[in-house]
User: What shape does this take?
Amino acid sequence: MAKKTEKKGYYTAEIIQKFKDALSAARARIAAGEIVHVSISHGNTKTGPVASVSLLPFATCPAICRNTCGPLCYAAKLANLRPSVLAAWAMNTAILMDRPAQFWEEVNAAISAVRYFRYHVAGDIPTPAYLANMIRSAQNHPQTEILAFTKRFDFVNAALTVAPLPANLHILFSGWTNLKPENPHNLPETNVYSKGSAPEESWKQCGGNCFSCACRGVGCWTACPGDTIAFEIH
Ligand code: SF4
Assistant: This one.
């Protein structure tokens, strides 16, 4: 079974169903009145000690991930392998859907307690209303630098026609080998290159540890219009 999954990538009907089932199970616990909480990660080898909140991959990602990052999605790989990770991301998504006030209360509490915060080590901005809450939260917590990568170009572009993003909310448009972001407001971007090949000359390579980048004032935290941060894909 593992061999089959690797060959087809992670955007398979089987894995998508597994994630849907995890979400249904989480929503059933909420419907039964169970006391549950948003799971905030306090870092991993990639982010360093940067707090983050994640949502279910695929369920909250735009349809374009099917033909771009989806088959190679490291978050889907992790959720598929680790039931506790899948359960946490499914519960976060369920709380967002069924108790949105609680979701934002707990995310805001986490943001207020840290200097650096990342959205969506897994998942993406699910709705324009969610993006509006991200913006409001950044405005209310100017002491916290907040980072998010997204393929929801349409949501962000629409918000940018109304007002600029708060200075502490760093949103980067996430491209792919076959995907050039719609980027009329010239936000910084990310893109990928294959292991063994070189990124485009103008791209800046990912430093590998978000906390280290934050402390040094480099990487995505300070990316400017026209910058592209490059990630190696395996
Ligand atoms: S370049 Fe960006 S994604 Fe890479 S480690 Fe630095 S802040 Fe994180």
